[in-house]
Design brief:
Layout: E1 9-14, E2 20-25, H1 46-51, H2 57-69
Antiparallel strand pairs: 1-2
Amino acid sequence: MFKSNPWTHCHISLSVSGKFNIRFAYISEDDSWPNLFMRGISDLTEDEAENIYYVPKEIWEKRVRVKIKLPEFNK
């Protein structure tokens, strides 16, 4: 299962009703940032990058440009 679909982040939750949910995400090393979970730098708005995660604007802009140029990055 994981060999063909690599992942780097995993979120496991259990609801009050006992429903179990697992989500996986692949975030490339270039698109990751400390304390940013289940999302890449390129998924952030400029405001989130600057004011919540403190990603330097130059890095955020570069990752967004890469995401726009590479269609396979958007999967």
